[in-house]
TrEMBL record, chains A, B:
Organism: Aliiroseovarius salicola
Alphabetized InterPro entries for the sequence: Alkaline_phosphatase_core_sf, Sulfatase_N
Alphabetically ordered keywords of this record: Hydrolase, Metal-binding
Domain (Sulfatase N-terminal) ranges: 6-392
Name of the protein in question: Sulfatase-like hydrolase/transferase
Source taxon at top rank: Bacteria
The organism's taxonomic lineage, starting at the top: Bacteria, Pseudomonadati, Pseudomonadota, Alphaproteobacteria, Rhodobacterales
Amino acid sequence: MGKTAPNILFIMYDQLRFDYLSCAGHKTLETPNFDRVAARGVRFDRAYCQSPVCGSSRMSTYTGRYVSSHGAAYNNFPLKVGEITMGDHLRKAGMDCWLIGKTHMKADSEGMARLGLAPDSVIGARVGECGFDIWLRDDGLWAEGPKGFYDQRRSPYNAYLREKGYTDHNPWHDHANAGIDGDGDIASGFLMKHAGKPANIREGDSETPWLTDRAIDFMEAKRGRDPWCAHLSYIKPHWPYIVPAPYHDMYGIEDIQPVVRSDKERTDAHPVFDAYLHGKLSAAFSRNDVRDVVIPAYMGLIKQCDDHLGRILDYLDETGQAEKTVIVLTSDHGDYMGDHWMGEKDFFHDPSVRVPLIIADPRSEADATRGTVSSKLIEQIDLAATFVDMAGGKVADHILEGRSLVPLLRGEESEWRDFAISEYDYSTSPMADRLGLAPRDCRLFMVVTERWKLIHAEGGFSPMLFDLEVDPQEFTDLGTSADHAEIIAQMYDHLHHWAKRQSQRTTISDEEIRARRQGGPEQVGILMGYYGDEGLPEEFTAAYQGKATPVEEN
Amino acid sequence: MGKTAPNILFIMYDQLRFDYLSCAGHKTLETPNFDRVAARGVRFDRAYCQSPVCGSSRMSTYTGRYVSSHGAAYNNFPLKVGEITMGDHLRKAGMDCWLIGKTHMKADSEGMARLGLAPDSVIGARVGECGFDIWLRDDGLWAEGPKGFYDQRRSPYNAYLREKGYTDHNPWHDHANAGIDGDGDIASGFLMKHAGKPANIREGDSETPWLTDRAIDFMEAKRGRDPWCAHLSYIKPHWPYIVPAPYHDMYGIEDIQPVVRSDKERTDAHPVFDAYLHGKLSAAFSRNDVRDVVIPAYMGLIKQCDDHLGRILDYLDETGQAEKTVIVLTSDHGDYMGDHWMGEKDFFHDPSVRVPLIIADPRSEADATRGTVSSKLIEQIDLAATFVDMAGGKVADHILEGRSLVPLLRGEESEWRDFAISEYDYSTSPMADRLGLAPRDCRLFMVVTERWKLIHAEGGFSPMLFDLEVDPQEFTDLGTSADHAEIIAQMYDHLHHWAKRQSQRTTISDEEIRARRQGGPEQVGILMGYYGDEGLPEEFTAAYQGKATPVEEN
C-alpha cells in the first residue's frame, strides 16, 4: 500500500487569514514561498474550517469529522476516547503520522482511565495526542497567570530557549513574545500597544525558525524511510502580535488594506452578533490605533512564516525530496483584524471562517492542475480523507465525513458538495452570560453555498443571511427579510439534511451493510415468516431436521 | 452514595407488546403478576423504545442515548468503543450492575484491538459486554444454519439442557423451540405451523423458568450485599413461537383480539411502508391461519412469563427484599402480530414501537403514585438516568440523553418533553434492495407528540402522519394531506431541533462550562483585547512584569 505513496508534509499555520497571501490577492504583503507552492499545485479559494477557533477546528481536521460528530466543540473540551484520527487511518494504510508542533489536543483523561489506557503506553500516548506519534508537541501558548500556566506540559520551546542562554523565568513570554520598553522593562506582546516593538529575541531563536529547524531535523532523520505524513504545525501568526527584527518594522500603516466594516452592521444587529459587538475584542479591534499597530506586526509574522517556508522548500528541492513530497499549506481559522468590528475569530464572516488551502502534489497525475485555483466548496475535514487516499488506503467513509480532494487535484471533474458547514460553541464565553443562555443553546451553525451564507443560532433566534454575490463584504444581514424566505428555507433544508446525517455508525461500513442484505440471517438459522417449509431451501432446514427425542426419554 | 439506595431489578422481556397485559387492557390474557407490580407502582402507558428492533433498542436503553448518538443502529452493528453505559454510570454512583440474560450486544472488537483492550480483562470484558458485569449472558438465539450458529458464543442454556439430559445436537432448538410431529420428527418452532404444538421439553427446563432460577440464584448470592442493579433479560415471548405444556393450549382462537388492519392501508401506501407490505413477514402475518396459531402461542409464552414473574415477586416478598427493591418491567419493542398487515416489529405503529413499562418503587416517597397510570411521553433512554438517580448518583446529562423518571414516580409535577423519538435503520434488509437505496438513506425517524405521529424517511420521500386522537388505530396516513401542512411543519421542527442536539460533547459537563465562563483564560495568562493595561487587574500582569534582559546579554 504505502510503497508508492508520496510523503505528505501537512503544514498548518495558526490564525492565518485566507487573504493575507500575495497569491490570494493581498496587495502589499509578498509571500513568494506560499506562491511558489500555489504555482506547483492547486489553491482552493473557498475552503472553510469546521469551527473558527483553534481546538475544535483542529479536532475536526485531525479526525476528519464535523464538530458535532466528535464533540470537542471548543478549546480544551477533551476529544473523547474512542474517536478515530487521521493517524489511525494512515497507519492502517501503512503510513506513519508524526506531529511537529501544535495540536491544541486535550486528552480525555477520564475516558482513558475508564478504559485503563496508560498515557505512557504506545496506545495511550496516541490516544492522548490525537493519534499522532510525537516528534515534538508544542502548542505555543506558554502563557502564565495567577493560576499558573495555561498549558501544564513541559515546554520544549522554553527548554530550547534556556539552552540558548535565555535564562528568564518564562522566556517564551519574556523574549519571544515581548519587547523592551523605554524603562528597560518587559513589554508584553499581550498588550497590543507593544505590537510595533521588536521581540526581544534573536530572529533565529524565535518560534517559527525553531519549529522549522525541527521539521528539517525530522525530514533528515526520515531520509530513506519514506513514506511519512508529518504535521508541521506552527503557532504563528497567532497572537501575541509581536515579531523579532527585521520583521517588526517591515510593514507600516500604508501597507494596511482597507478595513471591511460598515456602520449598518451595528444597527439592528443579530442578538448573538450584537453580543460579540459589545465584547472587549470588538472594542479593541474597532480602534484604528489598535489596527495600525497590530496589522503590520501580523503581516511581519506572516512574512517570517513565508521566509521559513522557503527554507523548507529549498531543503526539499536540494535533497531531491520535493518530487515525492506532497505539500499542504493551511490554517486552522482566520483573524478578523477589525473587519466587521471584530477581533480574533469566533464568528462566521469570511476573514474568520475561510482558510487558506494550497496543495501541491508533485506526481505527474496532478500535472493538469498546477498553478490553478479551485472555487469548489472545501471543508477542512476533506484533508484526512485526502491523505488516506494519497497513502493508498481505502477511505473509511462511514467514519471520515470529508471527501478526498485527489480527484480535484487531478482535474477529474466530478459532482461536488452543494454546501459547506461550520460550527461554533460559545458556551464558555462572556457572550453566553450576556445573552443569559444555557450551555447547549450557545451553538452556531454556518451553512454556505456558492452564493449564500446562513448562520443559525440555537436558542430561538432568527438566522443571519448574506448574499455573497451581491454583498461579498457581508454587510447586509437578510436573515429577517421576507423577500428571502425561500432562500432561508432552502438553507435550512441543507442544515437539517446535514443534521440528520449518520455520523456515529462508525463500526460497520456501507460495503459490509450491502453484503448483509444477501439473506444473512437465514444462513445462520434465523427463519422468519415461514408458516410451513414452502419456499425454504432445503439446506436451511438441515440443522433442524431429524428424529425428535421425546422429552420423557431425556 | 449507594448506602440508602434501593436494589434495582430491571426486567426486560423481548418482543412483548405493550397491550398484551391485563393491566394494559388485554381482554382475554390474564397477567396477575404484571398487574401486581402495576398496583404497587406506576404503569407508563406511552413509553416508546428508541428503535423497534432488539439490538439498537437495547443499545439505547443500556447507554441512555439515542440510536443516532451511539451509532449501533441495527442488530449486530457493534457498539463503538468509548460509549459510556448504564453500568459505567452506576458504578460511578457506587452501585454494581449485573447482567442475567440477553443484551444483543456486539462488541467493537476492531476498536478494542485499536485501544489494546483485552476481552478477558476486567475493563475489556465490561466494554465487550455493554458495561455489565456478567452473572450470565445468554441472548436466547441459538439458531444454526448452513453457515453455522447465529451466535458464536458458548451457550449457557444449551450447556444447562445437556446437563439435564437433553443430548441432541442443539437442544435449544430441538427441545425448547420445537415440538414433535406425527412422524416423531423434530417440528421446528421456526415454522409457524408448529406453533400450536407443545415444545418438546419439561416446562421447568424451558428458557423462562431457567433464567428465573438464575435470577433467584443471583439474589440469594447477593443477600446482605445491597444495593445492586440486576438486568434480568428474558428472550421470551420472542419467537420461535412455541411454548411447553400446559401453556401451549391455554389460549385458543376465541382469545385472539380483533386484528387492527384496514384495506386502505395497502392503497397508496407510503413507498417504504409499501416495501414492507411486499415482504415475506407481511405475507405470512396477513394470513389468518398464521395468526390463529401464532397468537395463542405468543399469549402462552407471555402467560409463562407472568407465572415466573410471580415466583420472583414471591421470593422478594418472602425474603423481605421487596421493600428495598425497585422493580422495573419493560420490553425492547413490541410485535405486530398481523396488525397493519405486518409481522414482527421494524416499523412505527404502536404495536411495534410502544413498550410496556411498569416501575414499582417500594420507598415511601413513591406512595402517592401507587397503582396509577402515567400518560407522559416516555423514552426508554429515561431508564438509565432513572437508575443513576435511584442509586444516588448525579445524572450526567451531558452524556445521558434521557430524563430521570423519579420525579414522576413521586408524583412531583414537572414540565415534561413534548415529543418522543424513535429511529430505525433498514439498510441491511430486503426492503433496502427493493427501494434501491444506499445504506445511509435507509433510515426512518418517528416523532410522536400527545396527538400526532410523524414518520420521516431519508431518501427523498414524503412523510407519514397519523392523528392519534381521531385515528388511534393509525389507518389514515395524512403525510401528503395539504390540510395538515402546518402540523407536518411543526413535527419537522421537533425532529430538526432534536437532530441538532449536542449529543457528542460528552467529556465536559454543563456545570463545568458555566464555571469556565468566569474569566478562565486570564487567570492563566491569556490576555486578549488589551491595548494597554487599562482595565487589567494587576495580578494578571504580575507574571509578565519585571526588568527585561536585552537579547544581547543572553
